[in-house]
UniProtKB/TrEMBL annotation:
PANTHER family: HOMOCYSTEINE S-METHYLTRANSFERASE-LIKE ISOFORM 1, ZGC:172121. This is Hcy-binding domain-containing protein. Keywords: Metal-binding, Methyltransferase, Transferase, Zinc. Zn(2+) binds at residues 249, 316-317. Residues 9-331 form the Hcy-binding domain. It comes from Erythroxylum novogranatense. InterPro entries: BHMT-like, HCY_dom, HCY_dom_sf, Hcy_S-methyltransferase. The keyword Cell inner membrane does not apply. Signal peptide: none annotated. It holds the Pfam family S-methyl_trans. It comes from the Eukaryota.
């Protein structure tokens, strides 16, 4: 894929979707809501082994809720993590590819349903609209691999160098880039060193699909490690293969201020997919109940986010297909053709 084509992937999607594209909601927590047990070092990637059909069904639910981009179940899928479970390197690489295949299968099924749905005219509230859909291959941070909630602290210690992080992610990123995904979603990036590692890696390895960089924050000012958001976003800004930059898995109340900060240093499309605002107990691998916002409250922010500069909006952990459906309904250019 040439450079021009890389940047046109996102501009074309935004043009087709009327200026704002919709990202899916939390995949992992939706799998959990359907009964999956994620209390495992692989977290959601465990479902690639135990319940691929459920992963596909959840991708489909998000497409039928109106998402234009679905994110694969590879957030915590690493070759090192699979090998620790006894899989060979080849098997581990195949599991990474499988995460993308499942999402691509869901897209094919969705397009078939669109054709059938437009024939029988009864969509039961589902969005069945032939449109551009992108599959984003998730890459969670080194902290996610540690499976101790480190992606909410970003404190890796002095031993974890830039070179270490590049080597940790290298093979996984190459496999995902060649798996048929449309782009790579570097998500929940907790610190500057990991952003730098990704930026160098995609250049050094000649990665041929575009990427987005998405950071998380717990104070509405900096990224979770305390590193400057401005410096983190500047790394993304200087990387030509990065076609969007933004924030995910962060409470909705912080988002508006974070968009305004990012706008000072980026001209790239800004993406926003906050969590429900609930907090995560990393030791118990459980969410602290009743600490978040309702779908209505979440959606009440969306217009403002778009007004101040967000071009891609969705949800992260503990948001559901209902959240995504509500986001689509609130976007004026989409509501008219929701039930095609
Ligand atoms: C974004 S957090 C909720 C992801 C889960 C974490 N890496 C864990 O394994 O507990
Ligand atoms: N996209 C990820 C979560 C990132 S915090 C997933 O739901 O698996
Ligand atoms: Zn999340």
């Amino acid at each position: 894929m040439g450079r021009a084509h890389m940047s046109s992937l996102m501009t074309d999607l935004l043009r087709h979707s009327g200026g704002v594209a919709v990202i899916d909601g939390g995949l992992a927590t939706e799998l959990e809501r359907h009964g999956a047990d994620l209390n495992d070092p692989l977290w959601s990637a465990k479902c690639l082994l135990t319940s691929p059909h459920l992963v596909r069904a959840v991708h489909l639910d998000y497409l039928e809720a109106g998402a234009d981009i679905i994110i694969t179940a590879s957030y915590q899928a690493t070759i090192q993590g699979f090998e620790a479970k006894g899989f060979s390197t080849e098997e581990s690489e195949a599991l990474l590819k499988k995460s993308v295949e499942i999402a691509c299968d869901a897209r094919v099924i969705y397009y078939e349903r669109c054709k059938e749905g437009s024939l029988d005219g009864n969509n039961n509230g589902r969005v069945l609209k032939l449109r551009s859909i992108l599959v984003a291959a998730s890459v969670g941070s080194y902290g996610a691999y540690l499976a101790d909630g480190s992606e909410y602290s970003g404190n890796y210690g002095d031993k974890i160098t830039l070179q270490y992080l590049k080597d940790f992610h290298r093979r996984r990123v190459k496999i995902l880039a060649e798996s048929g995904a449309d782009l790579i979603a570097f998500e929940t990036i907790p610190n500057k060193i990991e952003a730098q590692a990704y930026a160098e890696l995609i250049e050094d390895e000649g990665i041929t699909i575009p990427a987005w960089f998405s950071f998380n924050s717990k104070d509405g000012i900096n990224v979770v490690s305390g590193d400057s958001l401005i410096e983190c976003v500047s790394i993304a800004e200087s990387c030509k293969k990065v076609v969007a930059v933004g924030i995910n898995c962060t409470p909705p109340r912080f988002i508006q201020g974070l968009i305004l900060s990012m706008k000072k240093v980026t001209t790239k499309p800004i993406l926003i997919y906050p969590n429900s605002g609930e907090s995560y107990d990393a030791e118990r691998k459980e969410w602290v109940q009743n600490s978040g916002v309702s779908d209505e409250d979440f959606v009440s922010y969306v217009d403002k986010w778009c007004e101040v500069g967000a071009s891609l909006v969705g949800g992260c952990c503990r948001t559901t297909p209902n959240t995504i459906r509500a986001i689509c309904r609130t976007l004026p250019h989409r509501s008219a053709d929701q039930s095609c």
